[in-house]
Design goal:
The chain has 122 residues and is of the alpha+beta class. The protein has one domain. It has 1 helix and 5 strands. The chain has a 5-stranded antiparallel sheet, with no helix packed on it.
Length: 122
């Protein structure tokens, strides 16, 4: 919901360094929680089994499931890490979109040329 949907698509789900990014959704919108994990090796985890993790981004107000608002519960160096992840993913998505648009235009041009050639031979 407010605060989650703006950055949701630019964050991966799961472990990212010492962060655990928990993305989900419900009938009214996207939900997002970010946790700082204790030091250690983390791979596939269930955040609900990590007792020492601290939620640093989550619901800051509103009625959960209806009007919740998301934001930073605790600020620290992880804020800059999350901003970097978002920036990197925005740039990656932009590059991917540019590539796919270029490929689509090339295919469209080739198809138009094929059609024009076929029709001009009639």
């Amino acid at each position: 919901m407010k605060g989650a949907k703006e950055i949701y698509d630019y964050l991966p789900q799961g472990v990212c360094g010492r962060l655990f990014i928990d993305k989900s959704y419900h009938a009214r919108g996207k939900t997002l929680r970010i946790y700082v994990l204790p030091k250690g090796d983390w791979e596939d985890i269930d955040i609900h089994t990590i007792k020492d993790a601290v939620e640093v981004y989550g619901i800051t107000g509103g009625l959960p499931g209806w009007t919740e608002k998301y934001g930073w519960l605790h600020k620290g160096p992880w804020v800059d890490d999350v901003k970097r992840i978002i920036k990197d993913n925005k740039e990656r998505i932009k590059r991917e979109n540019e590539y796919y648009n270029k490929v689509a235009k090339e295919r469209e041009k080739a198809e138009k040329e094929r059609i024009n050639k076929l029709l001009s031979d009639y």
